[in-house]
Amino acid sequence: MRVTVYGARSYDRQFLTAANAAYGHDLIFLDAGLDAQTFPLAAGSDGICVFVNDCLDAGVIDGLSALGVRIVALRCAGYNNVDLAAAARHGIVVTRVPAYSPHAVAEFTVGLLLALDRKIHRAWSRVRENNYALDGLVGRNLHGRVAGIVGTGEIGALVARALRAGFGCEVLASDPVRDPPLEAIGVRYVPIDTLLREADIVSLHCPLTPETYHLIDAPVLAQARPGLTIVNTSRGALIDTSALIDALKARRVGGVALDVYEQEAGIFFGDLSNEIIDDDVLQRLLTFPNVLVTGHQAFLTEEALSAIAGTTLDSLARFERGEPLPYQLAAPSAA
Ligand code: NAD
Fold it and tell me: What is the mean pLDDT of the chain?
């Protein structure tokens, strides 16, 4: 099948090309992401392959349908960027990769937390200048602190386990679905309000939905424990970034580690080091000594990229053969 791959980075090309040896799809790699300007580049393709920040709103989907695109294969888990109702109206099938390597994201989450807490990123840049002074690098033990895990699905459960069994944190969790094996190691499910009030560390692992949009907002930050550490490797819009900046300026928040940012589309995944960035919110965030930002790289391991490529190409092949699609997303009304 001919498939246009939007926003193809070097690692996408490498892992999709390697996995495609077993499938033989005709992959057209594009640097450009998908949006209202770039959808016509899919002309002649039966399918497209997209990532987290590609725009699949109703207008883009109308356009893709008119071009004859019949399948959208998301090479990621989250799908908040897709208008599934519009896709269903046009009979466009949407697939995703639900769990390629929860370990990749969970390990990165713990890595970010440790780097932030122990100021490893700041120590690294000091030592490169032969500055071996330790002033300003005092950290905090994880052991004994209260960690709140919002969402104990594939990724959140691994983080909860690492913090509880590995580091000896007291772990609170919030999820509509409880995980008994986590409870067996002492993870305590509590209402979300309790978690956000009592945790020293909050790590976000729930999906972005209308219910979870700006879950961390000004009232939550006002009631949180002083010195709260926040880690977000899930979706940027779970946090009201302006409210977060106000809380950082008021010295109420102790530290923030973000792999995702609510306005990351158009900024993350590209080299903008020679550009003037118009986003004042992100630029302000980067000025705080207790904020650590990475550019949506928690998934980026060899294992995860191989799994993503294999599952994505397999969905396209199954679609072509008219077989059932295990990772097809249902239209909202049928969900
Ligand atoms: P998952 O579906 O396995 O788990 C999500 C959990 O959140 C579920 O247990 C669900 O019941 C729970 N949940 C839903 N609504 C909730 C709410 N209101 N409050 C608390 N919990 C709620 O998903 P996952 O694979 O663990 O992924 C978690 C998140 O990580 C997703 O948002 C995904 O997009 C994101 N992600 C980020 C990266 C990255 O590179 N940064 C990579 C993969 C996934």
Answer: 96
Among 9, 108, 175, residue to substitute to test ligand 1 (most atoms within 8 Å of Cβ) = 175
* Contact predicate 132/126, CB 8 Å: yes
Determine the length of the chain: 335
Give the residue ranges of DSSP H helices in the chain. 10-20, 58-67, 84-89, 102-118, 120-127, 154-161, 180-184, 192-198, 218-223, 241-249, 280-285, 302-321
103 CA distance to ligand 1 middle (Å): 13
What pTM did the predictor assign? 0.92
Whether residue 179 is found in the same domain as residue 273: yes
Q: Domain for residue 335, yes or no?
A: no
pLDDT value at residue 333:
66
CA of 173 to the centre of ligand 1 (A): 13
pLDDT digits (tens, 9 = 90+) for 207-234: 999 999 999 999 999 999 999 999 999 9
Mean pLDDT across 193-203: 98
Residues 112 and 77 both lie in one domain: no
Closest CA to 214 of 243, 192, 249: 243
CATH number at residue 22: 3.40.50.720
Q: What domain range includes position 252? A: 102-293
How far are the Cα atoms of 74, 118, 155, 293 from residue 98, in angstroms, in the given order? 10, 32, 11, 25
Atom of ligand 1 nearest to the CA of 211: 18
**Ligand 1, residues at Cβ distance < 6 Å:** 77-78, 99, 102, 105, 150-156, 174-177, 192, 205-208, 211-212, 233-235, 259-260, 296, 298-299
Amino acid identity, residue 287?
Answer: T
Give the model's confidence band at 285: pLDDT under 50 very low, under 70 low, under 90 confident, else very high. very high
- Total structural domains within the chain: 2
119 & 238 share domain:
yes
Q: Provide, rounded to the nearest whole percent, the portion of the chain with pLDDT above 70.
A: 99
Testing ligand 1's pocket by substitution, the residue of 105, 161, 172, 303 carrying the most ligand atoms inside 8 A of its CB is 105
Q: Per the domain annotation, does 331 fall within a domain?
A: no
Q: pLDDT tens across 104-129, in order?
A: 999 999 999 999 999 999 999 999 99
Catalytic amino acids?
A: 235, 264, 296
- Ligand 1 atom closest to the CA of 179, numbered from 1: 9
Confidence at residue 335, expressed as pLDDT on a 0 to 100 scale: 44
Let me know if residue 40 belongs to a domain: yes
